[in-house]
Amino acid sequence: MRENHAEWLASHTEEIIDPKREIIDPHHHLWPMRHGSRYELPEFFADFESGHNVTKTVFIECGAGYQRNSPEPMAPVAETTYVEAMAQEVAQTPARPQIAAIVAHANLTLPIETLDTVLDAHAAASPRFRGIRHAGAWDEERDILQFAGQPIQHLYLDPDFQRGVAHLGTRGLTYDTWHFHPQNREFLSLARAVPDTTLILDHFGTPMGVGRFTGKRDARFSEWQDEMSALAECPNVIAKLGGLAMPTNGFGWDTRDGPPPSSDEIVEAHEKYYAHMIAEFGPDRCMFESNFPVDKYSVSYPVLWNALKKLAAPYDAAAQEAMFVGTAARVYTI
Fold it and tell me: 294-310 as b/e, with b when 16 or more CB fall inside 10 Å?
């Protein structure tokens, strides 16, 4: 983050829209130190209690809390233990936003017997354990990306990986993912291969706007629309709507000299993405997310949720309830 980032975000404030509306934020991270900043309970509360009525949240794995020299493949269980301790601390004050679910990490290419050992350990570490994210994000220019993903190409097409994702479904667990837009077709192949596992597509498939895609995001919008429409035909895919303020998407708010974006500016830049996803997936398969603190590189928490409320305004009460609360509550059983 830039120097004096907190002051930069604070340079634009807005009155909270519809402050009583309940929100489940289904995508955030916690970490002791990363990219020069900490995001644990003090930072979490500063954002999540900044005016909007966030009642529950879902933690998504990010490689935090691992123990030094932890043996693979059990190392990710330490992250679940790390987050569960914070969730228990929060639970002592029920009026505060509750960390209601944990999506952990496991290597889904493991033999099933070994994978089950890891999944059982996650379940033992936290009753909030709901699923796995073994993100497929890979790109040929990953070395220039701030959040580069992982080093394995074509992970979604790996038969061992597909077997692991399918196994999550047999255990009633979800699969969250994150990837870059050139991988959308491979993710479609995965979705078709594992029809009995609920897949949650994070961040719109990350329509990139940096590197070789600088200045080209809008030019390929119709292609992205076709990719999302094809994914919407898979009933096991749920759309998590957020993450467009990540630096990789190339809107440039994280580095510009002026103030951070207003909610109106976010709506103007992002509305066509949200409108297409909601039209194709339907509100009952869409959930709004913050992706904090990653999207905090570009926008403050209260301004982001103001933008999401403005984006939701054209839809009826039932649709808004689904996208702010119902879909997340159903998918993550919270």
Answer: bbbbbbbbbbbbbbbbb
3-state secondary structure of 216: coil
pLDDT of residue 319: 98
d(CA 233, CA 256): 38
Q: What per-residue confidence (pLDDT) applies to 36? A: 79
- The answer to whether 237 and 192 are in contact (CB under 8 A) is no
In which domain, by residue range, is 312 found? 5-11+19-331
Among 261, 241, 259, smallest CA distance to 311 is for 241
Output the pLDDT for position 334: 97
CATH number at residue 285: 3.20.20.140
Single-letter amino acid code for the residue at 180: F
pLDDT of residue 179: 98
Residue 71 pLDDT: 87
CB contact at 8 A, 131 and 176? yes
Q: Which of 246, 242, 266 is nearest to 58 (CA)?
A: 242
The rounded distance, in Å, linking the Cα atoms of 205 and 180 is 6
Is the pLDDT score of 204 beyond 90?
A: yes
In 3D, which of 103, 14, 101 has the Cα closest to residue 308? Answer: 14
Whether 160 contacts 109, CB under 8 Å: yes
Distance of alpha carbon 84 from the chain centroid: 19
Count how many domains the chain has.
1
Taking the chain, what is the end-to-end CA distance rounded to the nearest angstrom?
33
pLDDT band for 37, please (50, 70, 90 cuts). confident
| Per-residue confidence band for 258, with pLDDT thresholds at 50, 70 and 90 | very high
CA distance 44 to 50: 10
Instruction: Give CA–CA dist 79/93, Å, rounded.
Output: 22
pLDDT above 80 for 144 = yes
- Read off the pLDDT of each residue in 138-161 and give the average, rounded to a whole number: 94
